[in-house]
Amino acid sequence: MAATLASNRNPTDRNADATVHIAQLDEKVTDALLWELMVQAAPVRHVYIPRNRITGDHFGYGFCEFHTPLDALYAAKVLNWTHLYTKPIRISQSTVDRRNQDIGANLFIGNLVDEVDEKLLHDAFSAFGPLVEAPFIMRDPNTNQSKRYGFVKYSCFEHSDAAIAAMNGQYVCNTPITVQYAFKKDSDKRERHGSQAERILAAKGAEARRTAELENKLRPHTHFSDKPPKRISAESQLRPPAPYPGYPPGGYAAYPSHHPDYHAQPQVPNWARAPPQQYASVPPVGEFAHRGMAETSHIGWSTNRQFGSRTHTGRMPPYPQQQAPRARAPRPVPDEAAPVYRNEK
């Protein structure tokens, strides 16, 4: 089972943004049954139902933690008012900012008939704005009979004012209802919500929340290791790096000091250049000038000559044709009949 059925788990360890609060649970609802219901909406991480340590009975509510806040919001919208053992459950997102959201935009709805339930109130009053909590109808704990009044809580006074202006005196199930601000619980003077002081405090709180959200958006990114490292294969390590755009694959490596300098293109770094190669044509002038000319044979070409094996075009010269030896004049023979002059004493 992917989720954890832990009734003794500390609720403070959960992710509040991804947790929903389930109220009005029947006494026969168990952790496994609640997990089976919640998993129909999204994958469940933990299910927690507080229980009495002595009797083992739960207190009529529980918590379900999902993996993401979006899953929790979807489950609250889809599974809200689902009947378990003929009893509708109330599902709302459990956030740590519940006190900040309770700004005082609480409405009292009176003169409700028995046919009106929480789902009908939710469908009627959620049209004016999002509700902080699910609507609540006071009922008898023994008979579950409605006491004919309930409460609705909004997140801002603009939505509650619109609901009062539109719904007060309207007919619901053929009976006119009364909609007004509810009394404060901690007030001895029977003061109602919606006073000017509450509106000023609510406006300041909304401005502070907007400022905090803006600061979080402008905060620099510090999670540099969120993305897993890229695996480098052995083939990619042996492969030479790709050249810069606009340069040949081999680079200008034949004459590194004479490659054209384009101002519109960046210089090629050393690591992108090809290794130096042998000279394929005439060597630089003056490098072999001190060695002088090599002796040649009668055919005009010799393998012992410096750079005699290559021409200026870098190709081998054609083998010269063999020439016939020159005819030499015969050596003159002295004539025996000719007088010989000798120095005689």
TrEMBL record:
Residues 219-245, 302-345 are annotated as: Disordered. GO terms for molecular function: RNA binding. Residues 18-96, 105-184 form the RRM domain. Residues 302-311 have a biased composition (Polar residues). The keyword Transmembrane does not apply. CDD domains: RRM2_SF3B4 (cd12335). It is found in: Nucleus. SMART domains: RRM. Its main location: nucleus. It comes from the Eukaryota. Transmembrane segments: none annotated. One of its GO terms (biological process) is positive regulation of mRNA splicing, via spliceosome. Residues 219-233 have a biased composition (Basic and acidic residues). Keywords: Nucleus, Repeat, RNA-binding. It holds the Pfam family RRM_1. GO terms for cellular component: nucleolus; precatalytic spliceosome; spliceosomal snRNP complex. Belongs to the SF3B4 family. This is Splicing factor 3B subunit 4. It comes from Gracilariopsis chorda.
